[in-house]
Amino acid sequence: MRRRTGSKAVPAATRAATAAFINSTLTSSFIASLLQLPGSTVATIAARVRCEGTAGCRHHRGRPRLLSARDARMSQLLVYRHLSLSLARLTQDFNQSVALRLSESTVCRYLLRACLRSGAAATKLLLTPRNVSPGRK
Predict the structure, then answer these.
(1) By the 8 A CB rule, do 85 and 93 touch?
(2) Which of 23, 44, 104, 117 sees the fewest Cβ atoms within 10 Å?
């Protein structure tokens, strides 16, 4: 996951003042010393003002996730506790414990995102008397 850029901790009024100073002819280092902000924060706000025209935080693009991080971890715990359950049964158990009603494909997508994939265990061949060496029994 990439590092978030921007000035999340900077109040909106300070961001607006920074944007006003940026639109004037002041340098970023002077603005940083004037507002007592880190130079990287002023540079990030300046880049956002030049690119997007506003100093405010970006709007999140795309559809928000259905499950919170806590619910996603709970779905993983269900899998770890019951390794032999089918996807339909896992979905049913998950829907009983959470207020949301999720489909099997949604639960599968969250499990795949957590790198939990299905797979059959390899079977080990049984040894026959012919395979056993004559010296050992």
Answers:
(1) yes
(2) 117
Q: Is residue 92 part of a domain?
A: yes
Distance CA 42, CA 20 (A): 12
Q: Is residue 126 part of a domain?
A: no
Name the token pair of 129: 């008397």
Give the span between the Cα atoms of 34 and 54, in whole angstroms. Answer: 20
Q: Bin 36: left if φ > 0, else alpha if -120 < ψ < 50, else beta.
A: left
Q: Under a CB-based contact definition with an 8 Å cutoff, are residues 45 and 18 in contact?
A: yes
Domain membership flag for residue 13: yes
Q: Please, what is the end-to-end C-alpha distance for the chain in angstroms? A: 56
The model's pLDDT over 15-62, given as tens digits with 9 standing for 90+, comes to: 888 888 888 878 888 888 888 888 888 888 888 888 777 777 666 778
Kind and range of the H or E element at 111?
helix 104-113
* Pick from 73, 99, 75: nearest CA to 87: 75
Contact 87, 104 (CB under 8 A): yes
Q: Which of 33, 61, 89 is the last residue of a domain?
A: 61
